[in-house]
Amino acid sequence: MLQFKLVLLGDSSVGKSSIVHRFVKDSFDEFRESTIGAAFLSQTIKIEDKGSQQEVVIKFEIWDTAGQERYKSLAPMYYRNANAALVVYDVTQQDSLAKAQGWVNELKTKVGEDDLVICLVGNKLDLCTEEGESSSKPKAVESSDAEGYANEQGLLFHEVSAKTGEGVKQVFQSIGEKLYEFKKHELANSKGRQGAGGDTVNVQLQRPSTNDATSCCG
Amino acid sequence: MYTTERRPSMAERRPTIVAMSAQSVVPHLAGIEDPLPDTTPEKVDVLIVGTGMVESVLAAALSWQGSSVLHIDRNDHYGDSSATLTVDQIKKWVNSVNQGLFSGCYDNAKLYVSTSIGNHNGKYASRDFGIDLAPKVLFAKSDLLSILVRSRVHQYLEFQSLSNFHTFENDNFEKLTNTKQEIFTDQKLPLMTKRNLMKFIKFVLNWEEQPEVWKPYADTPLCDLLVEKFRLEKAQVFELMFSIGLCYNMQTKTPEALQRIRRYLSSFDVYGPFSVLYSKYGGPGELSQGFCRSAAVGGATYKLNETLTSYDPNTKMALFGDGSQVYVTEKVVASPSQAPKDSRNIPNQKYEVHRLTCVVEKSCEQWFSEGESAAVIVFPPGSLKSGNVEVVQAFILGSGSEICPGGTSVWYLSTMQQGSRAEMDLDAALEAMEASLIRESSTDLEHDDSLVQFGPNGETLINSVRLGQSFKQYVPRERIQFLLKLYYTQYTSTPPFNVVDPSFFDINNIDGNGKLIPGASDNGVLYTAMPSGEISYDEVVTAVRVLYEKIVGSDDDFFDLDFEDEDEAPMNKADYENAIEDDEDVDMNVGRHESAEFVGEMEI
Ligand SMILES: Cc1cc2nc3c(=O)[nH]c(=O)nc-3n(C[C@H](O)[C@H](O)[C@H](O)COP(=O)(O)OP(=O)(O)OC[C@H]3O[C@@H](n4cnc5c(N)ncnc54)[C@H](O)[C@@H]3O)c2cc1C
Ligand SMILES: Nc1nc2c(ncn2[C@@H]2O[C@H](COP(=O)(O)OP(=O)(O)OP(=O)(O)O)[C@@H](O)[C@H]2O)c(=O)[nH]1
Ligand SMILES: [Mg+2]
What is the rounded average pLDDT of the residues B61-73? Predict the structure, then answer.
């Protein structure tokens, strides 16, 4: 199983957490509180290897912002080793695309990985559909504007609704496929290459090997 | 607009003193239909200034307890006096030190950076490096580790083991024999010494219960007890006191030294055959970020690039550099390194810690155990050319720790020696390390079997014993390439071996009998202690607990977190794919709790 770290970015209340909750738990909550939940969630998807027709399982480890984005105070730890980023804006908020663009720039300077997959996501599409309720809002961000920008910057682009679930699965599916493409390439290239110090072993703190701390010398 | 109400936050839902008084406002939960103002919240329970290790753990403890916390830092990065910095950030920091921006906390910073770092065409980038200002190691059985697990902050971090402790003696590096097995198989140890050593190790594991052995030595240095009672030789005494105990000098008193020796031994084999861990990508700087994130999960608000200008304990208003202000219902806590201008209440930071940090263009793998990327080298009193009285400790990290690129390593040297001779000691230690590295890595020597492969008794020399071979007549052809060299003096109010004394925090306690200093911008501010020279994290939790108790009134619910998912039943297979990360841990909660509890009760 391949595992990827995915981070969420975008201004407050654009629906970052809602998108994740739709994806992970397939639920939506009108009264979602501003994220204090660091939401360190995970979810797996299956994609198909185009060559071998084999199924590949991909696991996303999803990091939500825990509200630290409010004053642009995200820690390097948040970005570190991220394989993918969802940059979210609200299609009913005029200025939220500009802000998303700011986050894309931030991301490019902070992560600077060539193989980081960035996906621009316009959320709350349900608010602008004709058959919506009286609360229906005009679409403030044109799809073509956002898509044009995404193409220019080499980003994936999707419009979704966390509320109805429309488009949410596809976001992660397309990110998964793109990451797999990279990964395949990388795996083929890195055959036999031993990363410097890459064989240092991590210790899992939640897994003590024994509680008998004196066994060495008792 | 489809909602004007939000669910109560974690902070609001937790029944606490603050919440019950119904005064707590969780600032950023303001109605979502209003765009959030780009100013600081108007009212908080606690304002914390500086995101160093102690402040960050405190922020997490308080926000999980239910207090609303505003946590600011004047830098554009987390960590403050325990930050992990890139080379460019180090340059900036050195400038600030030399401009006196941290008066009383740091001085005498000297920096050399090779042209191979940065400069567009340099071999390395500034951000290939993560240099800690106050590097630390983590004992496997310690209260900080228990809190890392309990708060789940460890999930944001990665840890690696460090098992190689070398003692430098007679121009040689001796590797620590720290297990029963190693003691028995060590061919160089006479049988009698082995027996005495085992006797001591048995004793030290529950030394408090045998006052008849140590009480007569309670006020004398430990070496007296070791020599007179346990008949140990100098080599073992040094190993016990300085490599295992990580004491700073020969005068270390019996109880303190015993405590420290036991700390090492009881940490052994908790996670494997080693006692000490360190975090990948950086030490306290990384842990600070983790605790800040946890605090944010608990509801704290974060704002970097923000300075505290002043606090008035009468109006309870704190003013910030950007002109905003906040009403603080409980306390303002600040690191001395981020004290407001015109502060008059900073406690005296009278103890010096001298540090020398180098980035070396050598992997230093030969100093590490297999599968590891770190080592500690201790230079006991009198072992250096400089005739050092205090120990010099060197903490070496290789590229496996991801704080430096492949083929390089970072050497953190420090000493508690006060005054100007400290730098001579640091230089002497550096020279000894450099010399041994040159001998060790020289290609000439590698081809000469008679020199390297066998010791005087015919035993194969492995690992650090090999690196220590003394070839006084050997003239090195190549010199070690230094990519960075940084000297600085750091000041702290924490004396060696002592953790923060609670009375320390009364100095500026206006609620008590303290008085306001007219014109001071920091009356009523509670100052934290700067990191001490202690190589482990041991002081941190005690310091936080003391502050926590000052603010909350008791430490009963200190990191008493009941994650709601912990009592959920494990899911069935079908649900498994949709499981949130934490649920995967459910079935091991029992074991984890036990160990966390166990660790939590350990005293420093
Ligand atoms: C919009 C939103 C609403 C949420 N509402 C709730 C809620 O009503 N109840 C709930 O238990 N969790 C809530 N959470 C928290 C969320 O479920 C956790 O962040 C998630 O379980 C991931 O936990 P973790 O352990 O991987 O995260 P970590 O960052 O590793 O740890 C956080 C832990 O703290 C706990 N936690 C985090 N935030 C809250 C919170 N707001 N209230 C209570 N506990 C929290 C969770 O049990 C979680 O395990 C909410 C999160 C979001 C984004
Ligand atoms: N109608 C509609 N509302 C949505 C949608 N997605 C999110 N919302 C609502 O928008 C609000 C904000 O959503 P969140 O998911 O908390 O937004 P966020 O970006 O995580 O916000 P912060 O955590 O504050 O950064 C909530 O009230 C959601 O119910 C959507 O697709 N349609
Ligand atoms: Mg959110």
Answer: 94
Query: Where does B295-336 show beta strands of DSSP type E?
Result: 301-303, 308-312, 317-320, 325-334
Residues B477 and B525 in one domain: no
Q: Amino acid identity, residue A4?
A: F
Reported residue count of chain A is 218
- Domain total for chain B? 2
- Percent of chain A clearing pLDDT 90 (strictly above): 39
Hey, which of A17, A27, A36, A43 would you mutate to test ligand 1's pocket, going by the most ligand atoms within 8 Å of its Cβ? A36
Tell me the C-alpha distance between B161 and B374, whole Å.
8
Any residues with CB less than 8 A from the CB of B382 and at least 6 apart, and which?
B388, B389
Banded model confidence at residue B599, pLDDT cuts 50, 70, 90: very low
Task: Quickly name the fold that domain A2-194 has.
Answer: Rossmann fold (3.40.50)
Query: Which residues from chain A sit within 8 angstroms of residue B279, using beta carbons?
Result: none
Cα(B77)–Cα(B131) distance, rounded to whole angstroms? 13
Q: What is the pLDDT confidence band of residue B460, given thresholds at 50, 70 and 90? A: very low
- Is any ligand 2 atom within 6 A of the Cβ of residue A83? no
Helices B254-267 and B191-205 cross at an angle (nearest 10°) of: 90
Residues B296 and B372 in one domain: no
CATH of the domain at B448: 3.30.519
Q: Which amino acid does the sequence have at A145? A: D
pLDDT of residue B24 exceeding 50:
no
Of A73, A197, A202, the CB nearest to B302: A73
Q: Shortest Cα distance from B160 to chain A (angstroms)?
A: 5
Residues in chain A closer than 8 A to B82 (CB atoms)? none
pLDDT tens-digit readout, B180-232: 556 555 666 778 888 898 899 999 999 999 999 999 999 999 999 999 999 99
Query: Is B6's CB within 8 Å of A72's CB?
Result: no
Asked if B484 and B113 count as a contact pair (C-beta separation under 8 A), the reply is yes
Give me the residue label for tokens 């005739």: B387
Which candidate, A45, A52, A53, A114, places its Cα nearest to that of A82?
A114
Give the tens place of pLDDT for each residue, A74-100. Answer: 888 888 889 999 999 999 998 889 999
pLDDT tens digits for range B73-108: 999 999 999 999 999 999 999 999 999 988 789 999
DSSP state of B478: S
pLDDT at B545: 93
Ligand 2 geometric centre to CA of B10 (Å): 18
Nearest chain B residue to A195 by CA: give it. B406
The residue of chain B with its CA nearest to that of A80 is: B281
Q: Are residues B412 and B479 in the same domain?
A: yes
* Burial of residue B57 (number of CB atoms within 10 Å: 0-12, 13-18, 19+): buried
Q: Are residues B470 and B520 in the same domain?
A: no
Task: State which ligand 1 atom lies nearest to the alpha carbon of A21.
Answer: 53
Return the higher-pLDDT residue of B251 and B121: B251
Q: Which helix (H) or strand (E) holds B220?
A: none
Q: What angle do CA B229, B231, B236 make, to 5 degrees?
A: 115
Interface predicted TM-score (ipTM) of this complex, two decimals: 0.83
* B472 shares its domain with B507: no
Extents of the domains making up chain A: 2-194
Contact B54, B333 (CB under 8 A): no
pLDDT band at B321 (very low <50, low <70, confident <90, very high): very high
Residues of the domain holding B557:
10-82+283-347+498-561
